[in-house]
């Protein structure tokens, strides 16, 4: 990055800089597949993850671990958490509501 070297999509994928590479003709389909997957996930859990990622930019390890412990406890109190556990036990797909 600092040198301004160009990186191909395949190189970026191999380096872990990006999640997936799609050809132009498959981009819409791949994007919709990812969006569909995200839409079926617990929105509150995604919010916790995003918040912790943002906090990690300015936290030291101890502060980050404390934040993660606090968020894990909060996540465990959500209706979506209970639904995820129940769906797992019943071997069915969970229905998350964002609560």
Report the CATH superfamily of the largest domain.
Answer: Lyase 2-enoyl-coa Hydratase, Chain  A, domain 2
Tally of structural domains:
2
Secondary structure tally, helices: 5
Give the termini distance in whole angstroms.
Answer: 40 Å
The poorly predicted ranges are none
CATH topology of the largest domain: Lyase 2-enoyl-coa Hydratase, Chain  A, domain 2
The number of distinct β-strands equals 0
SSE order: HHHHH
* Averaged pLDDT: 93
Polypeptide structure, described:
The chain has helices at residues 9-15, 27-39, 43-55, 61-75, 79-89. The protein is mostly helical and 99 residues long. The chain folds into 2 domains: 1-39, no CATH class; 42-99, Lyase 2-enoyl-coa Hydratase, Chain  A, domain 2 (Orthogonal Bundle), CATH 1.10.12.10. The model has no long low-confidence stretch (mean pLDDT 93). α3 packs antiparallel against α4.
């Amino acid at each position: 990055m600092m040198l301004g070297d160009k990186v191909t999509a395949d190189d970026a994928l191999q380096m872990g800089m990006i999640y997936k590479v799609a050809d132009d003709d498959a981009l819409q389909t791949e994007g919709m597949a990812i969006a569909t997957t995200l839409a079926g996930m617990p929105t509150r859990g995604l919010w916790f993850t995003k918040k912790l990622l943002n906090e990690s930019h300015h936290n030291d390890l101890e502060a980050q671990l404390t934040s993660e412990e606090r968020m894990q406890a909060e996540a465990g109190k959500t209706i979506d958490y209970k639904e995820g556990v129940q769906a797992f036990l019943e071997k069915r797909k969970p229905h998350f509501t964002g609560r």
